[in-house]
Amino acid sequence: MEWSKAKNILIMIFLALNLFLGYSLWEDIYLNYPSRIISQKEIEEAEARLEAVNLELKINISPQIFTMSFLTVSNQEQQGEILAEKLLDPEQPFSFNKGTEGTPQVYRQDKNQIYIWENGRVIFTREPMVDLEQSQDEVLEEGAAISLAEEYLENAQLLPVDARLEEVHSIGDNRYQIRYNQVYKNQTLYGGYLLVQITPRGLEQFELYWLDPQGFSGQEMNNISAAAALGRLADSLEPFSERTAVESMNIGYYSEVFDAQKWDMVPVWRIRLSNRRTYYINAYTGELEGIEEL
Fold first, then answer.
1. SS (H, E, C) 31-59
2. 195 and 224 in one domain?
3. CA angle 292-293-294, nearest 5°?
4. Percent of the chain whose pLDDT exceeds 70
5. Are residues 91 and 170 in the same domain?
6. Angstrom distance (rounded) from CA 114 to CA 80
7. pLDDT in tens, 96-115
8. What is the pTM for the complete model shown?
């Protein structure tokens, strides 16, 4: 009998604790921070603005308004000699052009070339070795393309530990472009990227621009909502002649390639469309920060 009473008391305490925690969460979201959740009406208004430019929203967007600060970064220096050791045949000679201000260093070995800019941006192009046993008609699947790319990069010790696979695109002629983005404290840095082009014969080209995050700076501020960012994007576009869709939308940090010692990256909404264009909308101001086209 005593055990039954004790069990009932424990159940009541547990229920009361759950009610208290649930109310605290509700109070935090809806009373203390009422602007953190947008209404369904605002989402529908954004969809109407997209429709006006022949854009269809194919994804569910977050109703939450996030708070983020600036992220201070610097360029990551790349050592040409080390890259040459990793990417070129050590038993074959190569040429080196030091470059001038504004132009890259260039290492050349036959049809393999490494370009290195002062800001740390690297482009490597190569002619993969032909496998005579490989069928010319072999179709490269997406998963196999990723495996080929990562095998090459890992063997060359060129796949950063803070890289995350972002997306894979078929670019025709049995080729794929694979994009990795940099991640810092669970935030995606769209300004730090690794682009790889792969074929059944192996890696043909990669472009690397990696950053050194210094830490978050300034006070956290409310970002504009995903719906507001979509509306601002729609306002900046001319109507598409063909039906186009919003395929993905994520929040992170972005900046273009900078020739600077240190700068602040801004939070952005990254919006990718079905026409393979990607737009970066400033999550503070709603201004268009950049456009990428595959």
1. HHCHHHECCHHHHHHHHHHHHCCCEEECC
2. no
3. 125
4. 85
5. yes
6. 8
7. 998 887 899 999 998 899 99
8. 0.81
How sure is the predictor about 261, in pLDDT bands with cuts at 50, 70 and 90?
confident
Query: What confidence score (pLDDT) does residue 5 get?
Result: 62
CA distances from 199 to 145, 163, 179, 207 (A): 7, 21, 15, 16
Domain co-membership, 89 together with 125: yes
Contacts of 282 (CB under 8 A, 6+ apart): 266, 267, 268, 288, 289
Residue-wise pLDDT tens digits, 72-92: 999 998 989 999 999 999 889
Residues 136 and 196 in one domain: yes
Tokens of 134: 């490989």
- What Cα–Cα distance (Å) separates residue 162 from each residue in 23, 38, 104, 153, 210? 38, 33, 25, 14, 10
The answer to whether the beta carbons of residues 196 and 160 sit under 8 Å apart is no
Q: Please, are residues 197 and 204 in contact by the beta-carbon 8 Å criterion? A: yes
- Say if CB 279 and CB 267 are below 8 A apart: no
Measured in degrees and rounded to the nearest 5, phi and psi for residue 29 equal: -80, -45
